[in-house]
Amino acid sequence: MKPDPDAVGPGRGAEILGTENEMSRHGLESDLDRLREHPVRLGPNAVTPGRPLLLDEETCTGCNLCIEACPIDVLAPNPVEGGLPLIVFPDECWYCGCCEMHCPLYAAGAIRMNFPLMQRGRWKRKDSGEHFRVGMKNPPPPNTRPPA
What we know:
Layout lengths: L13 H4 L2 H18 L15 E3 L9 H5 L5 E2 L9 E2 L10 H5 L8 E3 L8 E3 L6 E3 L15
Antiparallel strand pairs: 1-4, 2-3, 5-6
């Protein structure tokens, strides 16, 4: 009796395809051959347009305090001594600001949060026309005038 190639289920069609070990061994060998032909470069993920941090090359000293402060491990140390930290997992950032708070050169502009558009709250005072946004370096004093 010839095996039915269209049969489905355990043990059916095994005579045609071979044993599972032979199939998996053949698949593994072909995958390894493909990898040898086209080596994979390992590195940080490409930073997407939704980049969570803006690092200033001129101001940042590469002290890596921001890397130690990040609770999510979004950043990784740069292999180049004194280089900017690498943003390895940009989509995992919580925008908590721990990296900014621990940066000794934050006031000089070494690191800045780049909030997503949905979190960039902006408001305007009607009387003066001033614009304000979340995360301003020098926020205005609170409005103490009673509501009208």
